[in-house]
Specification:
3-stranded antiparallel sheet; Growth Hormone, Chain: A; homotetramer; HD_assoc_2 (chains A, B, C, D); Hypothetical protein af1432; about 450 residues; 3 domains; alpha+beta
Chain lengths: ~450, ~450, ~450, ~450
């Protein structure tokens, strides 16, 4: 398999706001970009409900996928220039792995659907499984393009996604605690939200990255750059990804889909409001073709119809989602958790069904993890390479990283209608209920 | 009408990648942002088909509207600080106009629909008229919010959009050859495409802007900054907005909608592929509620259905649009225009209906215009103010601007299926036709 | 004292790469900028020897001083807009303090000399004392400008520098753990070095800053922005300010000045190499006029002369400094420290005087400190304000800050001629000495 | 001559704010950077007196030289990747030219002195001649480093500087109307001044650049990018390089040096104010060693001494330069030029010697030039390459460039003491003279 034979007559570029240019040098990459499965990602937002809060965050999974591809391409270039393998097993970079790496990078998110995480939760789909299916199913354009290069290529690319590929360098490029995926989404989300916290020094990290027999490590001289990346990622989680208002919009979305699913049997099957493309999912009888027809716009189109539904809960939740009317929320902890039933009761008294109008949601992230023999599953820890070739794990030398290693950071919140907090414009008769409710909230926390 | 009474208890901000923060100080602005008509703009891309070429250009008209509001707010602040009116008729800034200006800025694009320019062309809608209707119709949330401040406010805001408002400073802030609208879209489109050409020095332009009795002028000391803005705008037209591939996608879209409209009578009215929300437009019998239900995602949803249509032209054009399969194009001029019928004939011979698979499209822009007594309609020319208070028109002192003043820049192109250019993978029997076709194309031009 | 009477007829701006524009609104600020004492700062680099490593870091203390002024001006504007005092003692912002704050911000570094820290060490000057003297001495232009506004102004401004000024808000704006000085130098040094680590979200920090009776605090909603600033500062110390090569150039400079001072008695007093402007310092008999004649260029001019000195140590050290020939260094700790005498002996054996060719240097910084009753002196801790008005200290809520609170971070290094590490181009007879020396160095550390 | 043998064991980088990193791959480049002649450029500001107006513009010719090297390196990389020569005379890129190109790029400014243009004017030196002398004289470190690679290398590098080198591609990389030198200084000066006008799309220009038998041309697809670069350069000239206040500071400097030269015979030769390092220039008897001892700091040191001179003109001019007290200026044209003697007479009446306190200065630049058979000397015109390989000159296809081709843009100004404009703080008895003077000035122009 000599991939270099498949180079484009002349390298092609895509203008990119984050990486300046995306460079495409192989025919197969260009062909993959042009498949309908890849093009669908243009219609799926990278950050879902976050754009309701950070209005600039309207970028799609398509642009992110190009970015992950480009970072992977640069890593391959650097590895080829500085650490080319000389003999099998020397732990250096074998550039015949390049095309598998590039394809896996480009395709790593191809199974993502509209509002992925919420959708999966309600319909029990799994975007990672679907990604592998799109790559290996003979029905897809992606699969055809890959097979034209080599009949084994789809299986290899899927193995990278699945972490079972034989070369750990390729796997860790795409998926590890400091990989092309995370590096692109941090930079891109920071660029588009305008929240500068996600910025870190990509060029410097690429300079200190190097292959070794166990995968990918980093020169110890670049310790602070890696540390800065870990902290930046943590900041993005705390300030952007876990923003209470976007979680509130996801709560509404989740309840909206749940309600629709519940009503599905009774929905007219031949009506302007029939969600034809969702029916296979309501009926739990869908295939990959059904899945690939969904995108953000399709779901939103149904929600627009549902605003006019006769079911008042479906209609109201659709309105809240489409027209951005978020729930409010407060933090709680294991102590104050026990207050929630009481609050739900008060909420019910003023007329909201707690099943659809309240929820709890915890958002926690593990900013970094080192190997712990007591755990079953664990992330690939970040190894730093000393001048003499020995390795040391990141949290051993970084006081900052050490402080967050193995720690779940985030919070747990209780969501409820904002009407509970307003003293004006509300129904007077419920005033004592509102007041009772508000007594339990102080400094944005349950008390 | 004392708008300052309606200030928010504490100023609210929206994080913005272009302006850092959008500052909201009035309750009415916050309420307008929260109307469903404004929220709809989140689902309408600012640049339509351009994102098929500049993949980062996925931003919506919502974010642009916030940006126009913010630039207008800054202009008002500067005018109030440096040029507050002392007596009526002194040509200085009367800050009681602020709220009209801010509302008009925020709402100036509210009537834009999905893929506006193409849609208007096929369905004879007009986004400027609709903008005014949304503002003045008592049915909309926008209107209700405005009326709460003052019953006259809707009419005043609509008058600004319509260029009939009494204060020319307010009109020119929002709409002139150097206004908040153009300044925001240049910066934002440049930011998101990654094409740096659109950048210019906003802070410097704001510093040299000043009110006068005729509207808005610029200190002559800032001539080069204004000149640079005019050139940047020209560059964005030439390099981004008039890109041949995005025009090609618009050609496809236009033909797709035309075909659907033609088939509308025969379309099943009660079927999974029925475009319910488009029907009022096919039947030329729509109201503002129908219009406000449309967005990019709704149209795309119908296109996704139509890919499976039995009408092979509808199906193929839908596939070309949804899955980004553009036509090719070449430039022509008045001499070579006469070749087009011959080329269309060749195209027909290989099996493409020229009505749906070829088109001509000219894209010309007037980068800048000065007053010309011979013309009926003309733009507000840009006036520069000398230290002694006299004015001079921009193109009189800028050699660069002079070179493009009153000149239409752009090109005229002929669009056709890319199959005509490929020598491989095509049907062998048609080879002589392809060769005949290709003889007329050299250096991307008809010859 | 009504400072607003002294506003400029029209606000003046200075273009600034970091803050876009510096806005000057008061005559006194413009006059201060035009004093010769301020203009001298143009000839003193902000980062001294760091530009030998980060070649872009060529900016002066003049540009930094403008930046600190500008940040302070923005803080005053925000405080006036959002937290104006209503009655004495309410802990809100009294805008009659503005001019004292602005002058102190602009002048806070006016006593800095050429290569300040090294110079102070050798000549026992103190830039903070000199700053106060320049402000209060009737001989300076700065003092005259201040007195024109109010005879008490010099004393007040000096009190801010000295931390004895009555209003703690003014003092903490200029000097605290999150002040205008630190914020400007981090952003400016990051901008000019190209090391992005120093970037943090200035606009957001300014938004959450607020006055209170104890000085300045921060809304708890901005905790992560303050945390990010603390981490950015730490990163700049670790990666830029403590860079081993710039410390090595400072070691050379220090030894060069020490040697010159030692030779001063014997230097010809009437010769082309006589350092006339340094003589008062060699003789420990200088006044403020002598001090204000020095700048980076004056010292360098003497060093250029000294390269031709007959004293071989003076000549060689001058050459090493002027022509950037740094020493090498390795890290050591309390254990390996005891090896240093042995290494110095080896260095002496190959012909270098250890007094001038070796040194130890420790660089440690306290990234953040909270109040500790056991310590005598302590920094103003960073207080976060909860919605109900209560305060919490930063390290109590930030796991990251907590990890570095009260910890000295940095390292201790031993500096020596790089000839000790080269195996080639060295004198063969010394080979065993070099080898003995090199045995003690592994992974850039003494062992 | 196989330069690739001299690669560094591992590529070295310098952090750069404009290009992110400068990559050094050859030992000879690293050695050249470490010569004392290159290190001297750290002490010479790139923009001389411009930093008096744009305070951020404090960068040196050293950082610019690294930047020119880096752009040249990238061009070589692109040419090698895309257009490698296959046989002699095919007009493609011969990578054995790389090292000559890189050395010439790095060294192209090495002969620049302190305040070069003014200095040259007074002392009749020529920085281009001196550059060649530094490269070819066996006395310099630069020459030694070059000779170690190949005895012919110094001559070759000097030939590139001198435009006589046989390969026009190498010459045009370093010196043409769109070369690495201009591209770096525009970007770097824009970055440091904060004036964004100088920005253009470097990556895009590099992508469309290609070698041909006549030197370097550009793909016609990149026409707008080249056009934008030409306009950006024009903007920088108009807004930064020709700023009236920096020209005023140069007028003062020129008069100061002229006065000092005039007084040189009478200057004490053995005194604290003796400008030892300038004496060879006053006596018109200097060699390259004398020249290489000068830098900005050395000249400033003498100026600091001269402030205390007994010659009142020398003292006053030195004070005006060191402490930034610029002259005022007005524009004049061929008509109003005849007023100048009258104004000088008025200036003399209030006590200023017109020879030292007035001057005229014209600053004109040719933004772009095409070949004109009528002219003797002409710049290499910019050629655009059509897909079929034919060329077209830039101004033929760009309306904007055409508008400025062959046109000298700029202005001519008359400089005088600002005392002539002040009505207050001046000596009352001269009031009629000031008024007479001011009558001739309107809108910053002579009338």
């Amino acid at each position: 398999m000599k991939f270099t034979d498949k180079l484009l007559p002349r390298e092609k570029v895509f203008r990119d706001p984050v990486h300046d240019y995306i460079y495409v040098q192989h025919q197969v990459i260009l062909d993959l970009i042009n498949t309908k499965e890849m093009q669908r990602l243009r219609r799926v937002k990278q950050l879902g409900a976050s754009s309701f809060i950070f209005h600039g965050a309207e970028h799609s999974r398509f642009t992110h996928s190009l970015g992950v591809y480009e970072i992977t391409r640069r890593i391959c270039d650097l590895f080829l220039r500085n650490y080319p393998t000389k003999e099998p097993g020397d732990g250096l970079w074998d550039d015949s792995e390049r095309l598998v790496a590039l394809c896996a990078a480009l395709l790593h998110d191809i199974g993502h659907g509209a509002y992925s995480h919420t959708f999966e939760h309600i319909f029990h789909t799994n975007h990672e499984m679907i990604t592998q299916e799109i790559i290996t199913s003979p029905k897809t354009e992606v699969n055809k393009v890959l097979r034209k290069v080599d009949p084994e290529l789809p299986k290899q690319v899927a193995a990278v996604i699945n972490h079972t590929y034989s070369n750990p360098q390729v796997v860790q490029m795409i998926s590890s605690q400091c990989d092309a995926d995370r590096m692109d989404y941090l930079l891109r989300d920071a660029y588009n939200t305008g929240a500068s916290y996600g910025n870190f020094d990509l060029t410097r990290i690429l300079r200190v990255m190097r292959p070794y027999s166990g995968g990918i490590c980093f020169d110890i001289s670049g310790m602070h750059a890696v540390e800065d990346y870990i902290i930046s990622r943590l900041q993005m989680y705390m300030q952007v990804y876990f923003h209470p208002v976007s979680r509130s919009m996801e709560v509404i979305l989740s309840h909206l889909l749940k309600r629709a699913k519940q009503l599905a049997d009774k929905m007219p099957t031949n009506d302007r409001s029939t969600p034809y493309l969702l029916m296979p999912f309501f009926q739990n009888n869908f295939d990959i073709d059904d899945y690939l027809k969904l995108d953000d716009g399709v779901l939103n189109t149904y929600f627009i119809h549902w605003v006019d539904s006769k079911d008042s809960i479906l209609s109201d939740l659709a309105d809240r989602f489409i027209n951005r009317r978020p729930l409010k929320s407060v933090e709680f902890n294991s102590d104050t958790k026990k207050l929630i039933p009481k609050l739900q009761k008060l909420i019910k008294q003023v007329g909201f069904d707690p099943e659809y109008y309240t929820d709890t949601n915890n958002s926690f992230d593990l900013p970094y993890d080192a190997y712990d023999p007591k755990k079953k599953h664990h992330a690939t820890q970040i190894e730093l390479r000393r001048p003499d070739g020995t390795m040391v794990e990141l949290s051993k030398v970084s006081r900052l990283v050490n402080a967050v290693t193995g720690k779940q950071l985030g919070d747990e919140r209780f969501f409820f209608p904002k009407e509970m907090l307003n003293s004006v414009n509300n129904i007077e008769i419920f005033q004592p209920i509102y007041e009772e409710f508000q007594k339990h909230i102080k400094n944005n926390q349950l008390t």
